[in-house]
Amino acid sequence: MKGCDLDNLTALVDGALGEAEERSVLAHLETCSNCAAIVRDHRRIKQRLAGYAIGILAPAGLANAVGSRLDRMPRPRPPRWRSFGAPLAVALVGLTGGLWLARPAWQPRPLDVQAIVWHHRHALNPPPELTLRTRSLASAREFIRQRTGETSAGAASTMALTGVGVCRIDDSPAAIWMYLAPQPVSVVEVFRPVSLPRGGNARDHYRISCYGGYNEVIWTSGGHTWAMVSSLPLERMIRLMEEGGWPKSRVG
Amino acid sequence: MEMAITSIKAALPWVRAAEDSRARFDALLSPLLVPLYRFALGMTHHRDDAEDLTQDAVVQAYRAFGSFRNGTNFKAWLFRICVNLYVDSYRSRRRIPAMMPLLDSDVDEDPEHARIASPEEEMMEAVMDEELERALSALPETFRAVVLLCDMEGMAYEETAAALSIPIGTVRSRLFRARNQLRAALSEFGRERGL
Who among B26, B41, B183 is closest to A41 (CB)? Predict the structure, then answer.
């Protein structure tokens, strides 16, 4: 018996061996009379037990007795979450998807920002002290005029930005923008020369600036330089820029 | 109005599920009632206890049917309930193993298995069955349960393992040892009869 795999003998009797294993055990039985006798006897026992089982019958009335006991019991209910949880989850997903699909087209939120685009030589080398805090466009112009020596107010472009303001600014490669925003950022001063590279895939080149309450993205596209100002989240603005879907509230 | 309320109630998913559950349970139980009784009889050795155990196991299964997951093995699940119930409630009722005549006026006649046998054949079979019953009842409970499920009910190792909450390897080894013990006991009986 030493070296005989007894578990495999059981599996052989029960037909639970794979082909290769069965071949191997059968080959073993050729040489091991002890195991062969075990397998033979176990098979007989298995057959006898199966035959014996067939002869055992349930008492008359067992099925009826069981049935009447079950009749007196409340019907089993699956946990409520299972009976309506799955449909509810499907409905929620559907509802969310539906709401997403049926969401209204993006409407720009009014953003009361005014901007002055000031073409000026100082823009290329701006004086650091050029900072203005005012809510008045007129005073902003005056401020620029005083600090830069620029006397012509006509040199300034004014953008009235609503929601997303996109402005083509490539006419002013060196410029001063002044954005005047309402509360809580009463006045924001931006002073920036534009020096974005041109050519190639223009949308690869863009610059992002974040100010209190709104953001600015400047990029080049179609041979022009654009500036977008909005109180939207920056990611949304970049997506708008990349999709080219910005509202053309071109002002100047 | 009452009818409307009834129909609204009937449309509720959990009420509908409850209505369906009895029919589903009956359909699943129907082919297993006799095997369950056979197993109970093999474990308790007593007809009345076996009937009680069968009924109690079915009632308990029905009560828990809400938590039964479709697609899992109902047979193994039902037998596991029976095994647990036997261990918890019936094992302590140990009685002196009673020899159970298989065919008497109290059991259903099964026309499929009805056959005509000579008086000698009947006597020989009765003797052999009695020997088998004695050999079975002499087995330790853990071995007997495996033999009852695998050899009498034809359950696969996996089903048996699930019903008894033991690993498949244990099923195999218990089965080997149980058959060996039966083999020894039956050959002893054979020697006693001068065979």
Answer: B183
